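stuck on this:

***
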Amino acid sequence: MSRHDDADQGPQLVHIATLGSTALPDRLDGVALILRMPSGNGAGAGADHAALSDWIRLCRNEDCAIITASVTDGNEDLPPNGVDGFVSFDMQGDMAMREDFPEMQIIAANVSSRHLAMQAGDLGADALFFGDLRAGTLDGMQAATDHDLAEWWVEIMEVPCIIPVASAAEDPDYAPEFIAVPLP
């Protein structure tokens, strides 16, 4: 994922999909895909593994980074082979992963305070997701978005933020670097 700058026309698009629920599209328009993994890391055999392989292949063909998110509580697994990064719901607890996988992109989620945001940035997060990525619906993701916190972050920090929105046409006033739109 690249950094938003003054020459850009607006935020860059990040897609959100759920393994096993979201239909694989023919193409992607975004710079990244956050693939929610409700049953663990998807590295097991069977349908989950085949579906994960399809998503990885699509992202490679579309030059789109693929970031996995284990959204089941307590399921902070190693990212599967072939992905570009993972979502951390506990940056302090995932510090060893940052050290073990320095090339992986890490998106910090569950950022609900300035303290947690600063901690995630200090611990090496590549971006912060403001909203509830574990929510099953866009409304749930957006309900947990603290726009004042996100605006504060955008104004003073270098680490990009990601805001869940309903469509790629939305551009919050505070100019986040990335917007995240669930795929249908």
About this structure: The mean pLDDT is 88.
